[in-house]
Amino acid sequence: MERKKSPKKDFRKQSPQFFLIGLVVALSTTLLAFEYKTFEYHTYELPDPIINEMDEDELPPLTFPKKKVLPPPPVQPIEPMPVPDPEPTPMPDPEPDPIPEPTPDPDPDPNPGIWDEPEPLDKEDIPINIAEVMPEFKGGERAMYEYLGKNVKYPKFALENGLEAKLYVQFIVNKDGSISDVKVLNPEGYGFDKEAIRVVSAMPGWKPGKQAGRKVRVYYVLPINFSIL
Questions:
Q1: Cα–Cα distance between 22 and 28 in angstroms, integer?
Q2: Distance between CA 86 and CA 72 in Å, rounded?
Q3: What is the structure's pLDDT at 191?
Q4: What is the DSSP string of 111-161?
Q5: How far apart are CA 97 and CA 42, in angstroms?
Q6: Rounded mean pLDDT of 68-97?
Q7: Intra-chain end-to-end CA distance of the chain, in Å
Q8: How many Cβ atoms from other residues are within 10 Å of residue 163's Cβ?
Q9: Which of 3, 35, 170, 209 is least buried, going by the fewest C-beta atoms within 10 A?
Q10: Cβ atoms 172, 222 nearer than 8 A
Q11: Which of these ranges, 36-50, 105-119, 125-139, has the smallest mean pLDDT?
Q12: How far is CA 99 from each of CA 54, 105, 135, rounded to the nearest angstrom?
């Protein structure tokens, strides 16, 4: 009995496709063969380096400049810091004078045992801190500071050492405008206190303060600033 082939399994129908695939592979192989290159490698010998052989005696000596040794700077003597002005030691209170014994009166008082009342103290002579009309430098506050700027001399030692201070000077302006009882409330020393007292004591007359229309003595505190510009 003869076997029949199935038409679905007949591969001869696909032979054109296999032919085209083989043709493409053959052409690709041929092109790669034409593009393949080979390289030749050559070896070259480098000449020996030229060494300049010089005698050691012909080599120039190496010289280096000597460093200049500077002399040490002169040592300036350091002036000792002055000791601030010591605070004045309080003076001991004087011993009270002995009370003298009463001497007999040649003319006895007809009313023995009755003494005259002592005269009251003048309250106007006691300085006060605040008055209705405060004392004023003649010309005003601006004129006062112009006076200070022209007359204050900066202490030499404080100026050389860059020292500054701000002092509060208290004094009394009397009824006639004069200055008294000048003192520094916060003493600093180094010549600041003496200069502040000197310049304030030499001030010209002030306009006195008034209380209830009467001239009175008034305390006044003046700040003086010693500053190096």
A1: 10
A2: 40
A3: 92
A4: STT--PPPPPP-GGGS-BS--SB--EETT-HHHHHHHHHHH----HHHHHT
A5: 136
A6: 66
A7: 137
A8: 18
A9: 3
A10: no
A11: 105-119
A12: 123, 17, 42
Sign of CA dihedral 201, 206, 210, 214: positive
Amino acid symbol at 139:
G
Task: Determine contact, residues 158/191, Cβ cutoff 8 Å.
Answer: yes
What are phi and psi for residue 137, nearest 5 degrees? -65, 140
- Report d(CA 72, CA 19) in Å as an integer: 106
Give the distance from CA 76 to its chain's centroid.
26
Residue 88 — very low, low, confident or very high, per pLDDT cuts 50/70/90? Answer: low
Give the model's pLDDT for residue 85.
64
- Other beta carbons within 10 Å of 164: 13
Residue 86 has pLDDT above 80, yes or no: no
- Rounded to whole angstroms, the Cα distance separating 19 from 28 reads 14
Owner of token pair 């350091």: 78
Q: What length is written for the chain?
A: 229
